[in-house]
Amino acid sequence: MIVVALAVPFAVGVLLVLARRFVPSRVAAWAGAAAMAVTLALYALVWEGSEGVSGRVDAPWIEPLGARLQLGVTAVSWPFALMTAFIGLLCCLWLVADDTAPALVGLVLVVSASALGVFSSLDALLLFVFFELALIPMWFVIALWGTGDARRAATRFLLFTVTGSALLLVGIVIGAVRGGSLELIDIRPDAVAVVLITLGFAVKTPIVPLHTWLPDAHSAAPTVGSVLLASVFLKLGTYGLLVFVEPSDHIGVVAPYLAVTGAFGIVWSALACYAQDDLKRLIAYSSIGHMGFVVLAVATRSDVGVAAAVFGSVAHGVVTGLLFFAAGSMKDRYGTTSMTRIGRGLYARTPWLAVTFVLAAVATLGLPGLAGFWGEVLSLRAAYDVGEVLSRPVAWTGLGLALLGIALTTAYVVRAVRLLAQGEPVPSDADRDLEVREAVVMGALVAAVVVLGLAPQLLLDVVQPLSAGVLR
Amino acid sequence: MTIPVDWTVAGPATVVMIGALVALVVDASYSRRTWLGSGLPATAAVLAGIAELLREDATGAPFAFSLVVLLGTLFVVVASNVMNFENAMPPGEYHFLLMSASAGALVVVSARDVVTLVVALELLSLPSIALVGLRQGDRAAIRSAWTFFLASVVSTAITLMGVSLLYGVTGTLEYAGLREALVDPDVPGSVVSVAVVLTVVGLLFKLGAVPFHAWVPDAYGGTSVMVAGFLSAVSKAASLGALLVLLAEALPGAHDAWGPVVAVVAAVTMTIGNLGALRQDDAVGLLAWSSIAQAGFMLAPVVAVSGPYGLSAPVQYVAVYALANLVAFAALAVVLRLRGSTRLADLRGMARNDPWMGIPLVLAALTLAGFPPAVIGLVTKVVVIRPVVLDDHVWLAVVMGVNVMLGLAYYLRLVVTLCGRAEGEPYVSPSPPISVRFAKSTVLIGSATLVVLSAWPDLLLSHLP
Amino acid sequence: MIRRWGYVGITAVLAVVVAIWAVPELGRDTVTFVTIGQTGPDGGPPLPSLSPDLLIYPGTAQILLLAVGVGLLVQIYSTAYLGHHPRYRSYALVIVLFLIAMIAVVGTTNLWVLLVGWEVMGLCSYLLIGHEWESPVARAGAAKAFLVTRIADLGLVMAIIVIGETYGTYDIVGAQVAQSEQPRHATLIGLLVLVAVVGKSAQFPLHTWLPDAMPGPTPITALIHAATMVAAGVYLAARLFQLYADSQVVLTAMAVVAAITMLMGALFAWVQTDLKRALAWSTVSQLALMLAAVAVGDPEAGTDHLLAHGVFKALLFLGCGCVMLAVGSSALSSMGGLRRRMPVTFWTMTAGFAALAGLVPTAGFFTKDSVLHAIERATDGDRGLAAGTAWVLLVVALVTTFVTAAYATRLWVLTFFGAGHGAGPHGTLGQDVREAPLAMAGPLVVLAVATFALSVGQPLHLGTGLLSTVIAVAGVAAVLVAARRGSTLAWAPRPLAAELWLDRPFSRWILALGTGASRVVVELDREVVDVYPRGGESLAATISRGLGLAQSRNVQRYATVLAVGVVMLVVIGVVVS
């Protein structure tokens, strides 16, 4: 089932790229949406329960290296996979327009499918292959369809990521040598390998100070590119930390640094957000903060931490996806994402867009009852608990920084709402409210944000039996 | 001293050498110097050599290296058809020198005593130097050949010095004898160290390792593209094979002496090579520097030559590297013939407007970079890092990781250049010779092989040594 | 019109549902525990979830009824007050959401549900205060309210986490049960709760958001001040009282906060020139009184006063809205002499001011009396609070009573008596000043009746009752006498008029600090953090160029490099081996 779920978007994506001259825009987008819908449905159906691995596929691959074609989803990876398929589907729906390039749809499919591959791999080498597979398509998404200095931003993104992944590769090999196999459950990275792997994923996550690629890439990318980068690509980093670093016996080597830099990143990014004028850059920086909570949670190495990391990642996926779609709508209308140039009073000019934006904004600041909150509060709890490997001063330093970060987050969100939604309206010719496709995409995400916010058990129940030994 | 003739080893080399002579004679007896006149006998001879090699039913690293050498030569010979009707290149001499060097490469790999090794190295080097300078009326080529020659002479001299020291210390030049003699505690350690290091220098030179790399960019850039391909693939494979056999068979007792040297050279080589490649604006220059870096990657697992993957890892790596490099060089040779330039700026958008050459080039670059979807490149990167880790050279593994990243920086630059949007229609030669199709077919067959290997890496990993 | 009443209908349905549910509980002694979902402390705290468990006891039932009652009245009132506003729909719906959130806070036993309601109230107040978002003042006030309360709410978040970790459950009842077996971490929990309460109930030093929230529509101010937002703070302090009742540190801190705030709020209320703002400060002062009751160990007295205050403060604010509608401003200088033109407003507000001043027989008198009595009982020192602290608290409370009576009278006089300062050029009120429509006046009457009705059955403590009456009457009398003698009642020392400059840290320093820090961060991000990738890039490029230049085709140079290399390799080989 998983093989089909991966093959369909890959195949449709590659076909769309190859046949880009012959496919009408709308047909391409609908084909992409159909493919992602199939994938989403298959991933939803594959679930067998939190215990063990669902939908396992196991075939020999590279015998001499001890690598096998092992696919399957666990309690940790399934939420990531569902979220990715969901976001991929929405990205394709978003592209249902006359001016869409079919190749862009194809690349979106390939990127989504690669990310799904990462989340479904039970073999480290296979995971790494999928991890890298998405990069070049993403480069094209940013460089060819982006705005501003997109080429440079895309190249920076690519170089940062491959720097990380090269270290990651060495780390994986060391882990495989020490553990005797490339299967995820066998990998035993030693201290050096843990450092390397952490660095590799830290670039992707990203953790301050390895984040400087992110604002450029997110702000330059087209709307779907930003959404995929934020909602899916960053999760590759957190997922990697969860799968490789969190279970390792040597996490103690990196845990204090992860905790402090993660929490510091929350404050840092919130302050950076407060001074942004470009809405997409603001959202990009806010992502760093959200990932900071996840990193802090991972560093505690506790069941609560794992739950926090999974919930935080998934919630960030839907919330930030919604924000980027809203920012994309504004960009489509006004040709810019500069808040001063878009102008004030969107409440009056485009009411539904403004309301959606405000909802996403308050979700991003972690309002209880919306999705963003639970990941944060679980992270705080994990840090308060200290966990297995941190010392109390370190964990509580992280806790304090995280709380300060939440306060600052509120400040920049309120500022953004003041600058955009409120204020004396300055009507412009471009003012028009949500189109149907925008309403559908954003509506789906709003629903996800509210459902996850009001019924966190839906997701937590999946993750909770983790201690039963899904991933050691 | 008698040198025993082992026909299982010498057979392919002899066949190839005979082919070289036949090609020369045929070419000389033809009045119209066409490429096929000498090309066909050369091709036949290489095929016969392969048949001869496979007939022996041999296994092991030397066999694998011989196979790589012969297949590489075959590739070069066929792809060299791209140079048909290039009046500056005399086909008879070209094929003769190519086949001679190939024979030398075969002998280098099979040598079991140091004298044979040195002689064979010269048999490999001298025709290679001549090949570099063969293009008539090309002053740059001749200057390149000249630097290549002088550097080669110096390194051979150093190797000979090492060999004589070794002989002086141990009294034997056969690998087996050296192996036993070096474990003798009476042998003065520091002298052995000096001797071993000096001996290895010659092979490192052929491999293009830093600090003996200076000839590589000059030679590759100054000569025909396919000659560069030959040097980067066949010659490099042969010298790596010789180095491996020498270290594994003759000098395991002196591991303490050459281990650190090889490790340091490997680390420096890959770093310098990659850094050099970063700012190259010409695809051939880029590949020249990258092949220096790749030599470093090949060298790295050599430090663990006595470990479980010490022999197989370099063989597998070099096989994939050679194939990818040959595909890239052959594609560039075609491009040079058709478009008259291999500058990156002129290659922009080639994967779109000339997919039959552009996409193989992309594939080759990805393979060399070790980047999916060219899984085989990634797998062989894993293959070479693994023995290094197993042998507890974690620092070297980290250096390799950093260099994988540096390599990605320029390989991906090449890839995105090829896949980007072209600016305007490129110049394409209106009437290419029909024989270019031979070269194109090698590119396609080579890249098809890469695709198959990427889909099923086990094919290579389980079957090569 | 019909659509406007539709929202009233929704609110009414909500109110009726709550009433059906809560009214039977009013007289009951036993606690009804409605378990819909499942909770249960088993071992470590479970992962958080929003379980719909509800708990009602008489105290909560009263507050629930107050909330929905005031909410319904506000909704009715708004049809007239704000009915022609283009954004009436969002306004009315947010009020409904506001009420639901308040019901969640009051009715639940699940701390997370409480938190969700708590924060949703914060959001709703943000939206409602900023309802007139075209005006910069409203935007700024809304943002400030949201920011201050939300930052304080982090205290509640942490308190919930600590409660969960300490007692293994996120159920209030469960935690109380566990606490009665083995109390732990009382000080930590209490201080964290106190932070949240101080923020939400606008106590010192986080009080400055409340007066700034005045640009919101007046009915909303009534809702926030009387029945929902700020009341939730005191309610929370009372609800979780048991968890920190053992900690003298917490109780003392709470008492100190309450003492400072009640006097400060009352003094600030005296000096205001704006009716609405004066009433806002009076809320701050009254909430402090309720908090004082909690601090001296009698949370019931606090919630009782909360109830009475909710009624009369809603009355006062809604009356203030009527006056504002009539004279077009909330400045006291534009009022005066409204007694005859607006009899309903005058009489109902008179009741309200009497309750505020604590005069018999209003509910305000009785509940304030209970609070004073509780403080007086605490002066014996064995109720958790040190005797000295309790004495100070009692004195401050009595002084506050005096000031409260005084400013209540001042506001009453300035609004309704005199010649009419805001009158037209001829010294008479304009023709357009008339009584408010029925939809607005009706709720006033209902609330005025409730102001008296709630005193039925309230306990009376003779000693404190007499004392406070004397003090209050003295306050009223002093002001009346001064007014009779022609005083403008404008005694306003500069520090008080400037509200002790306590807003300065929030409006200037923290803002400047944040802006400055964020600029620095952006600069650092670009110029410092980004140095290593850019530096690495340029370093690699430089080396690369250098390597290219080194390819000079100069054989001598190559040979030199080669020779040096050989020597170095030999050295490595010899030395390392």
TrEMBL record, chain B:
One Pfam family here: Proton_antipo_M
Keyword Magnesium: no
Membrane topology: Multi-pass membrane protein
Places the protein is found: Cell membrane; Endomembrane system; Membrane
Keyword terms, alphabetized: Cell membrane, Membrane, NAD, Quinone, Translocase, Transmembrane, Transmembrane helix, Transport
Coiled coil: none
GO biological process: ATP synthesis coupled electron transport
Entry GO terms, CC: endomembrane system; plasma membrane
An example molecular function term from Gene Ontology annotations: NADH dehydrogenase (ubiquinone) activity
E.C. no: 7.1.1.-
Superkingdom in the source lineage: Bacteria
Transmembrane stretches, start-end: 6-26, 63-82, 94-111, 117-134, 146-167, 187-207, 219-245, 257-277, 284-306, 318-338, 359-382, 394-416
NADH:quinone oxidoreductase/Mrp antiporter transmembrane domain: residues covered: 111-405
Catalysis performed (reactions): a quinone + NADH + 5 H(+)(in) = a quinol + NAD(+) + 4 H(+)(out)
PANTHER family linked: NADH DEHYDROGENASE
Subunit structure: NDH-1 is composed of 14 different subunits. Subunits NuoA, H, J, K, L, M, N constitute the membrane sector of the complex.
Function recorded in the entry: NDH-1 shuttles electrons from NADH, via FMN and iron-sulfur (Fe-S) centers, to quinones in the respiratory chain. The immediate electron acceptor for the enzyme in this species is believed to be a menaquinone. Couples the redox reaction to proton translocation (for every two electrons transferred, four hydrogen ions are translocated across the cytoplasmic membrane), and thus conserves the redox energy in a proton gradient.
HAMAP family named among the record's database cross-references: NDH1_NuoN_1
Recorded family membership: Belongs to the complex I subunit 2 family.
Protein name, per record: NADH-quinone oxidoreductase subunit N
UniProtKB/TrEMBL annotation, chain C:
Domain NADH-Ubiquinone oxidoreductase (complex I) chain 5 N-terminal: from-to ranges: 58-91
One BP annotation, GO: electron transport coupled proton transport
Cross-referenced Gene3D superfamilies: 1.20.5.2700
Pfam families: Proton_antipo_M, Proton_antipo_N
Higher taxonomy: Bacteria, Bacillati, Actinomycetota, Actinomycetes, Propionibacteriales
Compartments, as annotated in UniProt: Endomembrane system; Membrane
Membrane-topology descriptor: Multi-pass membrane protein
Sequence intervals crossing the membrane: 5-23, 55-76, 88-105, 141-163, 183-199, 220-238, 250-271, 311-332, 344-366, 386-408, 438-456, 462-483, 558-576
Record's GO cellular component terms: endomembrane system; membrane
Protein name in UniProt: NADH-quinone oxidoreductase subunit L
Keywords: Membrane, Transmembrane, Transmembrane helix
Native source species: Aeromicrobium endophyticum
One function term, GO molecular function aspect: NADH dehydrogenase (ubiquinone) activity
Domain of life: Bacteria
Domain NADH:quinone oxidoreductase/Mrp antiporter transmembrane stretches: 109-375
